[in-house]
Design goal:
Belongs to the ArgR family. Pfam families: Arg_repressor (PF01316), Arg_repressor_C (PF02863). This is Arginine repressor. The protein has 148 residues and is of the alpha+beta class. The chain has two domains: 3-62, Winged helix-like DNA-binding domain superfamily/Winged helix DNA-binding domain (Arc Repressor Mutant, subunit A), CATH 1.10.10.10; 68-145, Gyrase A, domain 2. The chain contains six helices and six strands, in the order αααββαββαββα. The strands form two sheets. It has a four-stranded antiparallel β-sheet with strand order 3-4-6-5. A hairpin with a 3-residue loop joins β5 and β6. α4 packs across α5 (99-109). It is elongated, with a radius of gyration of 18 Å. It starts with a helix and ends with a helix. The mean pLDDT is 87.
């Protein structure tokens, strides 16, 4: 089964059904003749921008329809509490349990000045490609992670 077909089926299911978690999505895909490992489904959901959103009846997996990048940026903005730096790195403090999502968002921005991120529970360590780029990375983060 090609990734393209799997992605299309995932979109169809999420747009037509209330799906509360990935396990349920796997079962719905299996009913449609698509066998997929949980790790593969997790990657597919990430690539499609699938969000787990709270609704009046509980949680639901959803595909954002209007400008998903802007929607995710809005969520990231709400999760960041502070951004600080020293002469060698940048530390982002987030709401508890949200550092992984913020770190992943930063990684997906693919800024060449950022070597990578390491996320804990409420802290993201941003490692610059060069310590000489700290100021420009901070400016970049102000523009791309926070409300201006």
């Amino acid at each position: 089964m090609s990734k393209q077909i799997r992605h299309r089926k995932i979109k169809e299911i999420l747009l037509s059904s209330t799906v509360t978690n990935q396990h349920e999505l796997i079962l719905l895909l299996e009913k449609r003749g698509i066998d997929v490992a949980q790790a593969t489904l997790s990657r597919d959901c990430s690539e499609l921008g699938v969000l787990r959103s709270r609704t009046a009846s509980g949680y639901r997996l959803m595909i954002p329809e209007d400008n998903p990048g802007q929607m995710i940026k809005g969520l990231v903005e709400m999760e960041i509490q502070s951004i600080e730096s020293n002469e060698s790195s940048i530390v982002i403090k987030t709401l508890p349990g949200r550092a992984h999502g913020v770190g992943s968002f930063i990684d997906h921005l693919k800024n060449p000045g950022i070597l990578g991120t390491i996320a804990g529970d409420d802290t993201v360590l941003v490692i610059p490609s060069s310590v000489h780029d700290i100021r420009s990375i901070l400016d970049y983060m102000q523009t791309n992670l926070l409300n201006n």
